Amino acid sequence: MTNRKYQKLQIGNKSYSASRPMICVPLTGETTENLVEELQTINLAQADAIEWRADHFKNLKDIQAVRQVLQILKQKAPGCLLLFTIRSAQEGGADRRLTDEETIELILEAVHSKNTDIVDIEGRMSSEHIAAVYQKTRECGVKMLISHHDFSRTPAAREMNRWGEEAERNGADIVKMAVMPNRKSDVLNLLGVLAELSEKLTICTAAMAMGPAGIASRLVGHSFGSMMIFASGKESSAPGQIPLEEARLVIDIVNKYS
Q1: DSSP string of 91-144, one letter each residue
Q2: Which end of the chain is more exposed for a tag (fewer CB within 10 A), N or C?
Q3: What is the DSSP string of 15-78?
Q4: Which is more confidently placed, 136 or 235?
Q5: Average pLDDT along the chain
């Protein structure tokens, strides 16, 4: 990669940036057994992190069951970081009919468990909810990712810039933006915003355009400042994700000639 300086995310003795992006593989099993089976199909040596998409978990309202899964995943993938995510139905997740208050309670429990390295909180949440998660992550040494998802369109550049700036003000370590392109120029607009945010923010940025039209953003997004790539294992959690091994290969090729 070039000499361009990108913001770094330090977790323990591991450091990630757009120059050395984190490859994250989602797990979407509905039961503990499904999640373990899914994990066994992933080449963990190629993954930097696994994302437990807990909104797919049937027993999500059982806090004890959630604690148990977090412990199991950490034990079975000790070399990988663990990202805990409850994606709301309105942002593309499975509909578990949780209130925002119930979601925050589970996120805080994940932080407190000491088995989670990063937690995802949606930027649509109230400032009070985001502040509560921020405070708990600072107390427990966990990173906070603030996410925005739009499955219908690519917002205007000023709106995506606002997402990044608000996430920084709210204490996020990472701001994530996933949007749907309706034309090729939407992908270019996203990459332009990504490059701009990577220049002006003090936090890390992860951004991708979804679906077949957005595949270029997943292949070269780290060249524009994205420090996370979401790759598929057994199942994908969003349209357009590429397989783990291919994601690693693409990063190596792009970095070799950049």
Answers
A1: GT-------HHHHHHHHHHHHHTT--SEEEEETTS-HHHHHHHHHHHHHHT-EE
A2: C
A3: EEBTTBPEEEEEE--SSHHHHHHHHHTS-TTT-SEEEEEGGG-TTTT-HHHHHHHHHHHHHH-T
A4: 136
A5: 94
Find out whether 197 and 210 touch, Cβ atoms under 8 Å: no
- Contacts for 146 with CB less than 8 Å, ≥ 6 apart: 120, 121, 122, 123, 130, 166, 167, 170, 172, 174, 175, 176
* C-beta of residue 82 within 8 angstroms of C-beta of residue 116: yes
Nearest to 50 by CA among 97, 134, 144, 118: 118
- Find tokens 């332009």 and name the residue: 192
Label residue 171 left, alpha or beta by phi (over 0 means left) and psi (-120 to 50 means alpha): left
What does residue 205 show for φ and ψ, rounded to 5 degrees?
Answer: -125, 140
Q: What is the DSSP letter of 213?
A: G
CA pair distance 29, 156, nearest whole angstrom: 34
Assigned token pair, 31 = 């039961």
**pLDDT computed for residue 238 by the predictor:** 59
Which residues are annotated as catalytic? Answer: 149, 176
Strand-pairing partners, residue 105, are: none
Residues 175, 205 contacting (CB under 8 angstroms): yes
Residue 3 CB neighbours (<10 A): 5
Locate 90 and state its tokens: 């309105």
Residue that wins the pLDDT comparison between 5 and 46: 46
Structure tokens at 76: 């079975």
Give Cβ neighbours of residue 89 (< 8 Å, ≥ 6 apart): 55, 95
Q: What is the pLDDT of residues 113-128, one digit of tens each?
A: 999 999 999 999 999 9
